[in-house]
Amino acid sequence: MIPASIDGNRIWQIHVRPKNTALDPLGRQRWNDVRQIPSLAHVKGVSASTLYFVRGPLDRKAADTVGRKLLTDPVAETFTLAEGMAQRDADEVAVEVHHLPGVMDPVAISTADAIAELLGTGAGVDVRTARRYVIDGARDSADLEQIARRVLANECIEAVYIQGFGRHDGLPEVFPAAPEASAEPRTVPLRHLNRDALTALSRQAHLFLSATEMETIRAHFEAVGRDPTDLELETLAQTWSEHCVHKTLKSEVVYRGADFGRDGEVEVRFENLLKDTIAEATRRLNRPWCLSVFEDNAGIVAFDEEYGIAFKVETHNHPSAIEPYGGAATGVGGVIRDIMGCGLGARPIANTDVFCFAPPDFADERLPKGVLHPRRIFKGVVSGVRDYGNRMGIPTVNGAIHFDERYLANPLVFCGCVGLIPRDRIAKAACPGDAIVVAGGRTGRDGIHGATFSSAELTDTHADEFSHAVQIGNAIEEKKVLDAMLRARDHVDGCLYHAVTDCGAGGLSSAVGEMGENTGAAVDLEKVPLKYAGLRYDEIWISEAQERMVFAVPPDKLDTLLAIFREEHVETTVIGRFTGDGMLRVRHKGTTAGELDMHFLHHGLPKSTRRASWQPPAPRHVAPPEQDLGRRLLQTLSGPNVASKEWVVRQYDHEVQGASVVKPLCGPGNGPSDAAVLRPRLDGRRGIVLGCGLALSRADDDPYWMAVAAVDEALRNVVCVGADPARTSILDNFCWGSIDDDYAMGTLVRACVGARDAAVAFGLPFISGKDSLNNQFSQSAEEAQRCGLPQRIMIPGTLLISALGLVEDVTRCVTSDFKETGSVLAVISAPADAVGLAPAARLHAAVARWIAAGHARTVHDVSDGGLAVALAEMCLAGGLGARVSLDEWGSENPAALLFDEPLTTYVVECDEDALAELTVPEEAVTVVGEVTPEPRLVVQAAAVPLIDLPIADLASAWRSLQP
Amino acid sequence: MARVKVLVLRTAGINCDQETVFAWQQAGAQAELVHVDRLIESPARLTDVQILTIPGGFSYGDDVSAGRILGNQLALHLLEPLRAFLDAGKLLLGICNGFQVLVKAGLLPGPPGGEPTVTLAFNDSSRFEARWVHLHVCTDRCAFLPAGATLRLPVAHAEGKVVVSDDDALADLCRRGQVALRYVDANGGPADYPANPNGSVDGIAGLTDATGQILGLMPHPERFVDPTHDPLWTRSAPSEPDGRILFRSAVARFR
User: Fold this and answer.
1) Across chain B, what does the average pLDDT equal?
2) Which residues does chain A have within 8 Å of residue B227's beta carbon, measured at their own beta carbons?
3) What does each C-alpha distance from A765 to A133, A300, A712, A769 come to in angstroms?
4) Contacts of B228 in chain A (CB under 8 A)
5) What is the DSSP string of A711-741?
6) CA distances from A209 to A193, A229, A534 (A)
7) Please, which of A503, A587, A762, A773 could form a disulfide with A548 given CB 3.0 to 4.6 Å?
8) Is B32 known to be catalytic?
9) How far apart (Å, rounded) are the C-alpha atoms in residues A71 and A92?
10) Weakest-pLDDT range from A163-172, A390-399, A447-456, A489-498
């Protein structure tokens, strides 16, 4: 950065406008967003333009060249050039949006580099950008404020300037400087504090540590004989945060209540809930192809002799609630870094994304204060995932979206990433003497307290309090790091580093703390490259600024590694070294800022004991369903949970890298695929299969069965396209509200046990998992009453199961679109009265073998919406009809047969004699009809027509979701 | 006969490089990646290759506009070496972001140096969109394309709408046979959205220069070089994937 005081620096504004409205899609899109808000429906238009502010030693001619040759497209745009930042057309009614100081602006960074190259001066310039929206048809400045707040800007990260109707907000006239902060390490006297005072300190300093944890810290420093520094406390708070260490799931739990999957009562003690349930399934199954589970940044399974597949799914819920675009984008960026930082680095080959939102048509006037409208969250999250994943060149291939009003203030954003890793690049360990190298983006004041923030409950002031935890990503920076690190990983002399991890939650404190757990580490914070001056030493240490990786590099490889990163334009800096003394030593400009025993940091967290209880809830009142089954089918298809997500899917590049085999949409009618199939090696036939299960319709009845159903659904999905269940592994993601009473803990215990039971029964090892608690929102009683919502809105306990299957030969894969007139249609289902999950496990395996042997033409899974929806989707995907009779089943309750959501159920299309090859009990197969050329779905029972609808009507109902 | 050599250009944000190399190798060429910095340092690397490809991606994040910054780099540093390369009868292919780069560099529709008459603007839908399209080859002079053929390929872009400065510019392109590919509907007729996925004028999906040695196209031929790339492969008998035709035709030029 050039300080403003250097002589010869001028600030130019280059204002680029589209030549006409046809060339202004951004303005059009924003206008659509504005018009969707009922109180702004009268607005007649929005025109968007871009402002570039360039500061540097440029004369007018040079500035004009920049405008003409770099910033303006002569065919589509015009520009005006002026000196100074604040001159605009005073008659315009407009809203202008600038980035807040310190917020990532990737366009400004690229533009500054491109200007330097264009002018060939080598003289650095500084760039800022802004958007200006001219509004047509606003009635007063209150309209403008509403447009700005609800559509154009998010004041967490952006500053708004309004102009019109007598209002003229003063535009910035200089480049803002980041605020300076003192840099003296401070000691926090806590040895004399009692339990209450410790609790108060924890809350006031945003540590989110419990009284017992604070007492453990006090005892440690009493033994050391001094008080901690603020940096030491921060380091402990990050490392011990729920986000980083999952202390609730790892606590000792005593459960009393209803038995699991059987009648009766039980009392069970879990030494460590996670270890005794999720990890226990993996331990019991003991699959030799699980190469690395629950220890690295991602789980790794074998793909072939040479390669393994890494898979990780993360959540980024709180940031996405406050700033949907940035929150979701950095969620994607973060999980990609998990894959890059897994082993010695995996190459990301696919992303998955699952969202839970409130319905997009939620009434405007019922929106609680401090909460963004679900439509805005939906659009923002999708854009964020799209822009980060697409820019990284990683196909987004699988996902799901579920809607429930209880996600209003706590949307869930699950981001998954899959990577390909050479099997000889999995083991890693930093060695004493290795340099600690930080590579990638610079460190700024962004993302402070993300780890602890994510462990807090949200309230109506969270946007103000935690705006520093919200960030904007820069995908291209991460792509450069990836390009550079893969060159270093695959260097002819062998991998140029001993270990790597990502800078995620907790920033350098977590990354260096983890890598140096068994060695010790010494860091000099002043060496860390900063985005701007004025960061405090502890901010440098815990900042979660994006796109950074940390490497342990042996001294003899350091120069080679640095040269490679330089060639890829990745800033790389040695900030310290791994030692052998087992201590984490942090210095700033020669002064000790903290010294922590690694053992205490990683093993000092006191273990807590929790009680849990659960009894089945009273049966819920459910509104009686529509009696006309045809109408009920159309309603179900158009419901947001079942309706087509094509609007989302098409915004994701799902074919980049050229490995796509089964895409998210299938058949000429673009029906929904059950799972995605990819060929990670372009010269091979072996594939991976990605699917997911989310059984929220059972969440309120019994979390045990929700978990079983989620595992069952994830497995069904991958089996449907051709995966081998014996080579399928799964991941868990628990998102819950706060676990502050026995009942809440009980729901979590039941989900864990259900996940374990299903995983063991189906033979699916868990390889990685993550939980996110405290997904709830509190508001005042008055506000709650005004909105007709509870004062505390808790999400339903949500368990996402992601499945990773293998398929030996992708040309044997099948899709869910009907293919051939005259084929037989059959439903394959585990008998409903079967005891235990063993019959279901056998059925999954038999269906998979049958598909692999080439007997199936089409397979689809019965899930949301039941058999009727499955049949409708198969028809509309294939553009063919079906004639279905329920007679063979006995049809006393046809509505239940058509719309219930049973476990372990498949619909298949095949030749009649192919069914004989299916090795399942006779009663598991029911022939229900045939595929027909006339494009209608006809369902009857006992000669009574129940459903008779043209495919076109099914398709248009199914395609009605448009946020 | 020596193998045809191909350079595939990469830089920050290019992300279709690996599969583009694979597509060339599959077509019998010897393909190698080169970072744009290395090519600027030693443009002589162009002398022993026959084909240069600028693959898809988001070069420099598509910041400012798609392909602008890499396009400027080509125009500033590589114009003369590229002229010599083309004068030697060699071929230049830009796919998606690579097409945007060729247009922003002035190489398409060409010749470079004149006042630009064509650009690639945001899609009419104002969104990134990924979908398969039908294409008609409208020229007989492009080295990569069999005249009159109909192809099916995927597109995946946000800024693919061909815009021309005026009607004369469009008429010139048509007259000179520079419109290489048009989006068509499933029956080969004029395409409306979504068959024309971005609102391109006259359905233009790809342009060639006056010599037919440069091709820029928004669709991704490298994403249809295996039968299982076809979104409908589970319902049809395999045939030669359409994307492969393009790479094979270019390699055949030097055999």
Assistant:
1) 96
2) 811
3) 53, 11, 13, 11
4) 661, 679, 810-811, 813
5) HHHHHHHHHHHT-EEEEEEEEEEEE-S---S
6) 15, 16, 28
7) A503
8) no
9) 23
10) A447-456
Q: Mutate which of B20, B64, B153, B220 to disrupt the A interface (most A C-beta within 10 Å)? A: B64
Question: Of A955, A872, A940, A866, which Cα lies nearest the Cα of A906?
Answer: A866
Structure tokens at A109: 């960074």
Residue A834 has pLDDT above 90, yes or no: no
Report the pLDDT value the prediction gives residue A333, as an integer from 0 to 100.
96
From A117, A569, A665, residue closest to B73, measured CB to CB: A117
- Asked if residue A70 has pLDDT above 60, the reply is yes
Phi/psi for A309 (5° steps) reads -115, 125
| Whether B180 contacts B135, CB under 8 Å | no
Annotation says B142 is catalytic: no
For A323: left if phi > 0, alpha if psi spans -120 to 50, otherwise beta; the answer is beta
Q: At how many degrees (to 10) do helices A703-721 and A838-852 cross?
A: 10
CA distance A668 to chain B (A): 7
**Amino acid at the residue A832:** A
Q: Is A913 exposed, middle or buried (0-12, 13-18, 19+ CB in 10 A)?
A: exposed
Question: Does B111 contact A at CB distance below 8 Å?
Answer: no
- Cα maximum dimension of chain A: 91
* Per-residue three-class SS string for B156-188: EECCCEEEECCHHHHHHHHHCCCEEEEEECCCC
Residue from the list A476, A659, A667 with its beta carbon closest to the beta carbon of B58: A476
Residue A459 in this model has a pLDDT that exceeds 80: no
Chain A interface includes B122 (CB < 8 A): yes
Of the listed ranges A201-215, A464-478, A761-775, A834-848, the least confidently predicted one is A464-478
When mean pLDDT is compared across A113-122, A687-696, B152-161, the lowest value belongs to A113-122
Q: Could you give all domains of chain B from N- to C-terminal order, each with its CATH number?
A: 5-253 (3.40.50.880)
Tokens of A632: 């009920």
pTM above 0.90, yes or no: yes
Instruction: Find chain A residues with C-beta within 8 A of B129's C-beta.
Output: 650-651
Residues sharing a CB contact under 8 Å with residue A171, sequence separation 6 or more, in sequence order: A85, A86, A88, A96, A161
CA distance, residue B38 to nearest chain A CA (Å): 9
Per-position DSSP letters for A656-702, written without gaps between them: TTS-EEE-SEETTTTEE-SSEEE-SSTT---EEEEEEE--GGGTTT-
Pairwise CA distance, residues A544 & A469, whole Å: 8
